[in-house]
Amino acid sequence: MPDEFQILDDWLARGDEVAVATVVKTYGSAPRREGSKMLVNSRGEMQGSVSGGCVEGAVFEECSRTLKTGRPKLLKFGVADETAWEVGLACGGTIEIFVEKINW
After folding, report:
1. Please, what sign has the CA dihedral across residues 58, 85, 33, 36?
2. pTM of the model
3. Are 38 and 11 in contact (CB under 8 A)?
4. For the chain, how many structural domains are there in total?
C-alpha cells in the first residue's frame, strides 16, 4: 500500500486540496488504531482507512465538507456490541476522528 505521506505530497504537488481524517481516540474494540489516517482530495480520491463499513463513508463525506468549508471537525462514532453487525460495523466500541483541511 502506498505511503499516505507520499500520496499527500503528490496530491498537493499537483494542486489538489486535501482533507485528512485521523483516529484520535478509541474506546473498546475498534478496527483501526489511534493515528490511522484517511486522505480525501478535491477530485474525490481517497487513500487510507480510519474504520471501515458505514463509518468510512460518513468520514469521506465529512472530509468533502471540510474541503469546502475549511472548518475542522471532531467526529464520534459508537455502537453497542449487540447492534454492531446490524449497522455494518465489525465490532463495538467508540472511535473519535479529527477531520481537517491541509493548508499548504
Report:
1. negative
2. 0.84
3. no
4. 1
